Amino acid sequence: MNAVLHIKELIEQSLGKSLNFEEANSRVTLEVEDLVSVCDLLWRSPESYFDSLSCLTAIDQGPSSGDLELIYTLYSIPNHVTFHLRVLVPRLLADGSLPEVPTVSHIWKTADWHEREAFDLVGVKFTGHPDLRRILLPEDWKGHPLRKDYEEPDTYHGIQVKY
């Protein structure tokens, strides 16, 4: 926990922002709005040096909530520390388009495929991503299957989907 408090203080002092964090199930998660600045700091700072983005999880909280939650799992190999960042975005923007979050693929190369998966399955656009396209489903697939309100099609190009 001391390492986590130190990281929180590092971010607050460097970026001049007060942050909220929650602790549950032995996991500490820090909620951030300025994702790229925080990630860049955590990667560049020798005090934290999170050299690995282990996972990016996109979770649909459902239509009644109106939010999508993105959890970035960071790991520092030399410091043996795992840290989680959380970003909340609306499920849809006012104009009905998909939510957008800036890419962190220029910080961690692993974000390339993680962000493509989140785009493909949950429908989050990552602005500035070098190759944002579907990774698991065909390019012409309609919708995002891990959304709570997703309706699976009966057929795809004449092939029965539902059994």
From TrEMBL:
Give the first-level EC class, as a single word: translocase
Q: Which EC number(s) are documented for this chain?
A: 7.1.1.-
What is the superkingdom listed in this entry's lineage?
Answer: Bacteria
**Domain (NADH:ubiquinone oxidoreductase 30kDa subunit): residue spans on this chain:** 29-153
Identify the keywords attached in UniProt to this record, alphabetized: Cell membrane, Membrane, NAD, Quinone, Translocase, Transport
Membrane topology designation: Peripheral membrane protein
The reaction(s) this protein catalyses? a quinone + NADH + 5 H(+)(in) = a quinol + NAD(+) + 4 H(+)(out)
Protein localization: Cell membrane
Homology family: Belongs to the complex I 30 kDa subunit family.
- Quaternary structure and interacting proteins, as annotated: NDH-1 is composed of 14 different subunits. Subunits NuoB, C, D, E, F, and G constitute the peripheral sector of the complex.
Protein task: NDH-1 shuttles electrons from NADH, via FMN and iron-sulfur (Fe-S) centers, to quinones in the respiratory chain. The immediate electron acceptor for the enzyme in this species is believed to be a menaquinone. Couples the redox reaction to proton translocation (for every two electrons transferred, four hydrogen ions are translocated across the cytoplasmic membrane), and thus conserves the redox energy in a proton gradient.
HAMAP family, per database record: NDH1_NuoC
Q: What is this protein called?
A: NADH-quinone oxidoreductase subunit C
- Which species is the source of this protein? Aquirufa ecclesiirivi
Tell me the lineage of the source organism.
Answer: Bacteria, Pseudomonadati, Bacteroidota, Cytophagia, Cytophagales
The gene name reads nuoC
